[in-house]
Design a protein that fits this description.
Length: about 260
Amino acid sequence: MVYARATLAVILSLITIGLTGCFSSHPEDIQAFLKPPEVNVTAENYVLQPPDEIEVHCFKVPEIHLQLQRIRPDGKVSFEALGEIEVAGKTPEEVADVLEQKVSELYTLIGDNPIEVRVVAYESKVFYVLGQVFMPGPKIYTGRDTVLSAIADARPNAMAWVERIQVIRPSEDEDTKPKIFEVNFERMRLRGDTSKNVLLLEGDIVYVPPTILAVLGLKVEELIRPITRALYGTYIVEQSLQGRPVYGGYGVYGGR
């Protein structure tokens, strides 16, 4: 018993050291992120890409008014009277200017902003929530996504180390390190501490690591799984050779 406890203590210590080494967060890296009250992020600044969807408002021109258009893979949308228009890489306001130029060849437009383009489906940009959550994977980026909303939507599971969630902004430059800081979601949830509730950008990663005990359980399961499969396979073969039915498993030739 003493030996087993000592072994477990050593394993836990090694896992703790390993996990600590995996966390390379720096508190000062939070300065690279903006907080919601500090910036005005609107759809006007959103750069359109496939497969975003837009809606055109121009009640003077029935041919395009309330037209819904999903941006094609080639970056274009098309209207019956105006033809194809390149919209990828442009903001909604810039697309409205292009449409205005096209429409003015056929109609007389009155007013400063006769055409309005609205984004109705944000589909082209994502950020990621990974690790010990019920709903991992890419998430649609809207421009107003915060760390708190991202974690809450992904729903950490029982194995999540919610006190050490990592927020990562990758770097496209090989010579520049990614920005990483740590968030204590439990403090956010229980105390209402939103001091680290920053705005996410496209491509950001929120990683929810497993607790030390969860890592231990996963490692033990990883070690035991091949052994249990081998033992179970041997059991099935023996039962089949003796002519005994195997319930809840597979026979020698794959049948139940």
